[in-house]
Design goal:
Protein name: GTP-binding protein
Number of helices: 10
Family: Belongs to the SIMIBI class G3E GTPase family. ZNG1 subfamily.
Largest sheet: 8 strands, parallel
Catalytic activity: GTP + H2O = GDP + phosphate + H(+)
Organism: Fusobacterium vincentii 4_1_13
Number of strands: 13
CATH topology of the largest domain: Rossmann fold
Oligomer: single chain
Strand content: 25-35%
Domain CobW C-terminal: 231-292
Radius of gyration: 19 Å
Amino acid sequence: MKILLVSGFLGAGKTTFIKEMAKNINLEFVVLENEYADIGVDGDFLDEKNLNIWEMSEGCICCSMKGDFKSSIKRIYSEINPEYLIIEPTGVGMLSSIIENIREIDNNDIEILSPITLIDITSFNEYLETFNNFFIDNLKNTGKVILTKLENSSHFEIENIKNEILKINNNLEILTTDYRTFPKKWFGEILNKSIDNKIIDKNFSLKTHINLRAFSKENINLKTMDELGLFLNKLVNGDFGKIYRAKGIVKIDGYWGKFNLVYKNFEMEPITDAKGPKIVIIGNNLDIENLKNI
């Protein structure tokens, strides 16, 4: 069983990348989805027919859920034994610790592939400063970086971010083109490159993950587009605390839709169906009492 880690900070586009990879490769995958909150949202979006979704919620597989994480991998191996297991961490866990946790599993049939890290260039500069340890850990221990959300950035801005990344790890391959334009062959090559057997680089910090708070709720009271728009603007403006990530499924004016909020930007799009409304918000100093009234 080959394991591919698709890492990246909150909202970098990990789930979208996994969906695109599944579309381009005619293979059966198991996806282990690690949600920081106690309600999973991303698993609902991974609806490709060749994906078998396993969810681990309310914790981080690099630390608090370390034991459950290793047990889940062992169970997936024994019950399904897929050719490929794709792991999507929470977006706040340290990649070095996750790799170490997998290496502790005593099974010669498990092979770790070279990890992929996605970076949202619209929030990179602020998040690099605020969550420096996370980005250094990911960039020191990943095999390939894919820059996302390139649409509104100039060539100059993209090159500046690329150079900042290379200052941390000058051996990295950094992709600055939209991966959705890549041929199927490129996605297949990802699944054939093993991780280097180097010592994990984590000497720069004793911290294992970022401490943020998560709020989640089902049965959302947002019923109209005006109500949803007002709520999202309040999140961006800091009315409910410092929000780094929000995502959810809502039924607006009788139609299902999903929204994503990263940093100070949000987007909404329709979906055909859903199991029910739900929302997840991750940040600092969250106003939990007012969020409960959503």
